[in-house]
Amino acid sequence: MAVGVVAVAPMTLVVVGVAAVLLVCGRMVYRGRDRFIPNLYSRDISVYEAAYRTFIADSLTSLRDRKIPGHTLLWEASRLPAPSRDTADELLLDLGVWIGWSTRLTAEASGRRVYGFDTFTGLVEDWQIDDHVVINSGTFSLAEPLARQLMRDTGVALEDGVPSALGRDVQFVKGSTYDTLAPFLAARPDVPIRLFHMDLDTYESCLHALETCKDRFVEGSILVFDEYLVTNGEMRAFYEFQEKYGLEWRYRAWGLEAMEMNVRMVRSPVKRLWYYTDWISRYWLRGDGRFVWQFVDKRFWRFWLGAPAGDIAFMLGAAGQRKSVSLEITGLGRLGE
């Protein structure tokens, strides 16, 4: 038995070594580099017009210097100026909140009131995630089993059809942002938006929210996009918005999206461990993480042959769920006219 083990070890090293050499050689000749971005490695960006392809490439170059280990939203909320007379009227908006933990934790991190918007009955339109999958309208409803289970395990109850505040300084607004956002802002004339968190997912909802809020953005407004690296969703909406108005801005951070916050708030340590174990295993075995090991999937080759080494380490370090990006408005362009 010992002889067999000794014989297998060198063979394993040889196989690993050959695979490593082939990988390095493959990366040197692969022509798909820069055609696919870190999120899922699914969308071939060559299908887009030249200006948008340049925007995507420039964005990734900038974001690679702005990676953070934690949640982008909470990173930004914790860096807002402390509440004062000068900041009392500023708005912190969380658009797309599901069971509400992103809103509550943002209020905790910032020390300010946060307004959370959601239908609480799911997406208002289908969400096409690049060329990979469609998530149907109605998904992410609080009536779904996962939402009900997480609400129980994190102590969230429904009060008048919206999640409870649980002692945090939050206010939830129920309904589609197509219907609720403009009246909400009209009731608070001239109040600027300091923090704008976009988690409505779809291109249409994101662009509508940006247009509705455009007169409330000021220099220093922070915009956080939870699913920014979906190139035909939030990124596309922001690209068109900033192009239309000649907005000046700079990227600030690239980190974890908001979903993991919900698991972090599970009260029982045993249940919390179960959630993490279940979600991580589902992700790697049946979810988007399959592209790391499922060599029959074209995303496997796009990832291992085309991704910069830094992206590989960054994405693998968080089960691939690093899609959240923040930016700061530095000049209003035509918004100030």
Automatic annotation (TrEMBL):
Keywords: Membrane, Transmembrane, Transmembrane helix. The chain crosses the membrane at residues 6-30. The keyword Transmembrane helix applies. Pfam families: Methyltransf_24 (PF13578). The keyword Membrane applies. PANTHER family: MACROCIN O-METHYLTRANSFERASE. This is Methyltransferase. It comes from Mycolicibacterium parafortuitum. The lineage of its organism: Bacteria, Bacillati, Actinomycetota, Actinomycetes, Mycobacteriales.
